[in-house]
Amino acid sequence: MGLQFEQGEILLINKPYQWTSFDVVAKLRSLISSHLNIKKIKIGHAGTLDPLATGLLIICTGKFTKRIEEFQGLEKEYTGVFRIGCTTPSYDLETEISKELPFGHITREQINDAVVKLTGTYDQVPPIYSAKKIGGKRAYRFARQDEEVEIKPQHITVSGFELTQVNLPYLCFRISCSKGTYIRSIARDLGVILGCGAHLTELCRTRIGSYHLRDAFEMETISQHLFANNET
User: Fold this and answer.
1) List of E strands, the chain
2) What is the pTM of this model?
3) Which of the residues are catalytic?
4) Which of 105, 155, 190, 213 could serve as a FRET partner for 75 with CA atoms 20 to 30 Å apart?
5) How confident is the model over 126-134, as a mean pLDDT?
6) pLDDT (tens digit per residue) in 48-97
7) Which residues of the chain are in CATH 3.30.2350.10 domains?
8) Of the candidates 42, 61, 182, which has an alpha carbon nearest to the alpha carbon of residue 123?
9) How far apart are CA 58 and CA 207, in angstroms?
10) Does 136 score more than 90 pLDDT?
11) For 8-73+210-226, CATH number?
C-alpha cells in the first residue's frame, strides 16, 4: 500500500538552499495533486527555515496537519558557521556587511567564555529581519522600509552549544535549542560579547526532536520515493 496523503502522512524533507519553506510545501502539494489526481490536499510545514538555511523540514499532510504545533514545540539541532569581525543588519548573509571590527586579539578562552554565556535559559531578542509579527505585520517588512520598531525578547533555552572547529574568523558550531530560538541572534549576541561583531554565514537544521536530517528526502528525487507504490 502506498502513502495515504489524505488520511495523513509525515514527510521529512531536506530543504534546499534559497528555497523558502512555503516553496517546499507548494511543490509537494503540486506533486501530490498531479500524481494522485487530488484537487485539494491539506499540507503544511512544522517550523520555518530561512531561505539561506538548509536542512530538516517536517511536512504534514491530511489529518496529520493537526500535529504541526506538536512538532513545532520539539527541540531543534543546528550546525553552521559564524564569522566574527563583521556585522550585517540581518545578522546573516541576506544583507551586506555594514561594519568591520578587529578580531586578531580575540582568544580561544574569550570565545569559550562567550559560548558558556549563551548556553542555558535566557531572554533573546529576535532579529528585525525575521518573520516575527509586530502588530500584525512581519518584522522584516519594517526592516526593509528602514522603520524602527521594538521587538520584545522571548524566553529561549540553548541546551547545547559546541564549537566543532575554530579557524578565525570562522567558528563552526552545533547548537541544540528550544522553539523560538534564532541562531542569527546568537551570532549577534556572540559578537556583542566578544566586542568584535559577528554574523551567521551557514546554517543547517539537523534534527527536530527524534527526527533526523539523515532520514530526509531530497527534493530532486522526491517523486520517485513518494509515488513508487501509488497508483496514478
Assistant:
1) 8-15, 43-45, 54-62, 76-84, 86-87, 99-100, 120-124, 133-134, 137-138, 154-167, 170-177, 198-208, 211-212, 217-218
2) 0.90
3) 50
4) 190
5) 70
6) 899 999 999 999 999 999 999 999 999 999 999 999 999 999 999 999 99
7) 8-73+210-226, 76-207
8) 182
9) 10
10) no
11) 3.30.2350.10
